[in-house]
Every structure is written in C-alpha cells, then in structure tokens.
Amino acid sequence: MKCSSCGFENEGEAKFCGSCGAVLAAPPRPPAPPGPQIVPDGFNLGIILGSLLVPLLGIILGAMYINDPNPEKKKAGKRWLLTGAGVIVAYCVLGFFCGLMGNLQ
Ligand SMILES: [Zn+2]
C-alpha cells in the first residue's frame, strides 16, 4: 500500500507507513454500539401500562362522579377526567418525542 503522505510503498497489511509513520488505512470501524439502553423492556412496559391505567381509571372514576348529583363529587369527577386526559396527552407527547429521539440515533 502506497503511503498517501510520503509515497513510500509499504507492505499490504501495514497500518502505518514504514517511512513516515502516517496512518495508511483507517482501522476497521468497530460495530456501532447499540443505542443507550436507559430502561429495560419490562420497566418500559410497566410505564406504558401505568400511564395508560392511571388515566383510564381517572376517566372511569370521573365519568362516574361527574353524573353524581352531589356538586362536590361532580367537581372531583371533572378533576379526575381532566387529570386522566392530561396524563394521556402528556404521555402521547412524551412517547412522540421519545420515538423521535430514538429514530434520530
Ligand atoms: Zn509515509
């Protein structure tokens, strides 16, 4: 392999120039490391289930309470509904951005 730096003809397998020491060929790239595994899959599943169950429960409770003649319960039901919807929206936004980040890597 001819050195691109000084033109010295080196042996085929040489990685560095025998004359000037320049790198002849880039060393083989190590396989790309897998993306940072922040959380194990089981934990991820727990988050998905939790973040789906909590708002679902909130919406169910809210739907039950919001029809209650008691104004206090009605108020609580509204809050539950809002919380449930808010968590779902937040989860969707988070999931969207997480997916976006995952695709960028
Ligand atoms: Zn050289």
Textual characterization of the structure:
It is a single chain. The chain is mostly helical and 105 residues long. It has a domain at 41-104. The protein is 57% helix and 0% strand. It is built from two helices and no strands. The protein has helices at 41-66, 71-104. Helix 1 packs antiparallel against helix 2 (71-104). The model has no long low-confidence stretch (mean pLDDT 80). The protein binds zinc ion.
How are the SSEs ordered, and which strands pair?
Layout: H1 41-66, H2 71-104
Helix pairs in contact: 1-2
The structure holds zinc ion.
Zinc ion binds at residues 3, 5-6, 8, 17, 19-20, 22.
Secondary-structure element pattern, one letter each: HH
User: Which ions, cofactors or small ligands are bound in this entry?
Assistant: zinc ion
> What is the strand content?
under 5%
Give helix % range.
Answer: 55-70%
Give the overall silhouette: rod-shaped
Average of per-residue pLDDT values? 80
Major β-sheet, in short? Answer: none
Structural class: mainly alpha
Helix count, DSSP H or I runs of 4 or more residues: 2
Number of strands: 0
Rg value: 30 Å
Low-confidence stretches: none
How far apart are the termini?
A: 35 Å
